[in-house]
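Researcher: Structure for this, please.
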Amino acid sequence: MNISTESPVQIVDAETERAVARFLGREAMLLDERRYWEWFELLDDDIVYEVPLRSVREFGKNEFVANAWRIRDDKGMIETRIKRLFTGSAWAEDPPSRTVRMVGSLFVELSAELDVVKVESALMLYRHRAQDPHGDTIAARRQDRIRFTENGARLLSRTVILADTVLTTPNLAVIL
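Model: Predicted structure, token format:
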């Protein structure tokens, strides 16, 4: 990985940025196609996947409630969630949602950890279920850490910052 020293933020080289964009594009495709086990292989063993609870606060105040999460999973919990999708008991996803993810506004920078980059991105997820006349749109910012290993890139952590403070979707059973 080569870094630019043009700014205080350590920007990665174009090759690393392309690798991150390919990784996130492939991840979106796997999730949209419900290829959950292939997606699971992209996760680092130390993954932390979290969606903090956001609240409406006075301007300039922290919008996030300390230690309050809509989701906070490690790899074992993510595996349990995926297994549950195939049991017939995951009613929030029976029938399964049809999704289209758009990932953009990528900003990739070097982290203090060797072979790990920090990635900021925007996510727009369209979700439609069964015969509902309307679909849901979930907008979020994501803060990822991606580790480059000899076996390819792995998602080391993801924090999803939902734009909404009140969910407009009936559940968060889809992976963001």
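Researcher: Any notable elements?
Model: Strands lie at 3-4, 11-12, 43-54, 64-73, 98-110, 116-128, 136-149, 152-162. Confidence is low (pLDDT under 50) at residues 1-5.
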